[in-house]
Amino acid sequence: MNGITMLKAEQLSCGYGKTRVIHDLSFQVAAGGRLCILGPNGCGKTTLLRALAGVIPWQGRVEADGVSLRGVSPKQRAQKIALMSQFSQAVFDYTVYETVMLGRYAHHSGSLFPVKTQDDRAVVEDALRRTGVWELREQLVTRLSGGQLQRVFLARTFAQEPQIILLDEPANHLDPRYQEALLESLREWTADQGRCVAGVFHDLSLALAFADTVLLLEEGRALACGPVEELEEKLLDRLYGMDVRRYMKKIYGRWK
Amino acid sequence: MRTGIKTGLLLLAALTALLLGIGVGSVYVPPGDILAIAAGRIFDMPLPDHIPTGYSAMVLDMRLPRVLLAFLTGAALAVCGAVMQSLLQNPLASPFGLGVSSGAGLGAAVVIVMGGAVAGVGTFLMPAVSLMFALGTVCLVLFLSAKLDRNMSNVTVILLGMVISLFCNALMSLLATGSPAHAQRIQLWQLGSFSMREWSAVWALLPVTVVICLYFLRYAGELDVMTFGEEQALSMGVDLRRVKGRLMAAVAVLTGTAVAFVGIIGFVDLIVPHIARRFFGAAHRRMLPACALFGGTFLVLCDLAARTLTPPHEIPIGSITALLGAPFFLYLFFGGRKNG
After folding, report:
1. For residue A55, what is the nearest residue in chain B, using CA coordinates?
2. Given CB atoms, is B91 within the 8 Å cutoff of chain A?
3. Cα(B270)–Cα(B91) distance, rounded to whole angstroms?
4. What b/e string do you get for A1-13 counting C-beta neighbours within 10 Å, with b at 16 or more?
5. What is the ipTM of this complex?
């Protein structure tokens, strides 16, 4: 792997309570890289993202842009790594603009009289435009469709201005047009210097179309990690316990 | 701009409610006279001739403290309700769900039953014991939640809050059954009352309410982020465990203090936050102050109704809030839905 390493995990282990889900996992993502994490249900994909984002405790070593994340404050960590969780929800009537502005949280110091700067507004506007929800900015998030809401959450993730974005099933709720738009805006975002993306996708074809690097996860351990082009088909077959190519043919083969 | 106008209207409504609350009663005192009486006391001026001398004591030492106590209680309960709903990402959450009310109720019941033994200790004994029991109950709920579930997930907190609340209520029923002479007082306490219309109660509740409301406002940003889910909040940089613990403790202290003086008054904590959000949006920076004003105004008006609807008897305030609040709430939400 050439270039600067943006995200690096060494001997990473984590889990819930006494149950370990991820065992001594090591991998890295280069600047500008797009990693997809593949594996069957329950292999620890979401758990891995949670650990990287600081949602659950972990052992081992994680570096973002060469800086160890051990012992940094939640806000410092959030300025480097953002997670677009699949468990985010909109319960109360915030406007789209307010929701995206919340992404700026990690950049503010807490006080009774917080100030929203010109810079905050510029970042939020940019995020809203990148994701195509600028027109929706006055709408209430509780009235949006699932697909619109997903784009608003992506805008909020952009507004957080991290260097690394972690995605947990980001294409859920999206029709193919918006899937492509979402992945395209992520590609654009990653193309800037010193940024990278790591994501979990349930749609295999989407994952392989988007990513440049693949991490195959089997029962919390790395089965393989490398460029998409070098991915061995038999490893995928082993991972999912099926003939993946035949399955793909069955789905897409009808059109030819 | 529009928020400015709405805030102005809300302040006007609050002021009107306060003046009505003070003015209306066995004898009516018009707003002008109320101001004259207040000015007379503050600046030590003689009263205008048309105001009977007895009115001064009635307005300033009976009605005013009662109205202020109602306002503070309403503000405190509404704000605590809003904070709990955001903390638990649940529009049905309430500070009473942490066991505050049943703990306080048990404390009050203990004092009432043992009242003979400790008579003459002063009016603050009952509130003090209630507050201690309320805080003890919340501590127990939070301690057990943390013990059972390291992350103190919302479901665990809500469930344990219910279990402990029901347990306290059962103990309270046992006490009431064991000493039938006191059963009625225990039951009445649970319905709430502002009859302890003393300045001392106002002076005790005022600083707690102001300080804790400002404390909540300091955490407005965290509360906003937390309504979108805990996992999201953590990854966005919120120090979740610390913030949640602090805010729940503050909710317990404020609700506990309010309930200790006036008994259990439901509905305000649940409904007022929804009304405030409807007019001022969900962002806590605007919604929490609006909640305080709406809650205070609402409870002053409810107390007014409680005192004046069936003279000379007082309707328990806890039933008035639901009696007036439920139709108002339905009107607001289902009436508004047609045009919205």
Report:
1. B234
2. yes
3. 8
4. eeeebbbbbeebe
5. 0.90
DSSP code of residue B60: I
pLDDT at B80: 96
Look over chain A and give the mean of its residue pLDDT values, rounded to a whole number: 88
Strands A221-227 and A58-64: unpaired
Number of Cβ within a 10 Å radius of residue A112? 10
Between CA A236 and CA A242 the distance in angstroms is 8
Cβ contact A105–B236 (<8 Å): yes
Angstrom distances, CA of residue A12 to CA of A24, A44, A77, B52, B77: 5, 12, 17, 81, 46
Closest CA to A196 of A64, A49, A40: A64
Query: How many Cβ atoms from other residues are within 10 Å of residue B207's Cβ?
Result: 10
Beta carbons within 10 angstroms of residue B13's beta carbon: 15
Compute the CA torsion angle A5, A191, A55, A157 (nearest 10 deg): 160
Residue located via tokens 């009663």: B25
Q: How far is Cα A87 from Cα B258, in angstroms, rounded to an integer? A: 36
Interface subset of A 59-88, CB within 8 angstroms of B: 73-79, 81-83, 85, 87-88
> Residue A3 phi/psi, 5° resolution?
80, -175
Distance CA A67, CA A74 (A): 14
Q: In this predicted model, what pLDDT tens digit does every residue of A93-115 receive, in sequence order? A: 999 999 999 999 999 887 777 77
Q: Which positions of chain B have pLDDT values less than 70?
A: 1, 116-123, 151, 196-197, 335-340
> Are the beta carbons of B281 and A94 separated by less than 8 Å?
yes
Interface of B with A in 213-242 (CB under 8 A): 214, 217-222, 224-225, 227-229, 231-232, 234-240
Pairwise CA distance, residues B124 & B187, whole Å: 20
Q: Which residue(s) pair with B149 in the sheet?
A: none
* First CA to last CA distance, chain B: 21
Mean pLDDT (whole number) for A181-199:
89
Say whether residue B84 is in contact with chain A using an 8 A CB cutoff.
Answer: no
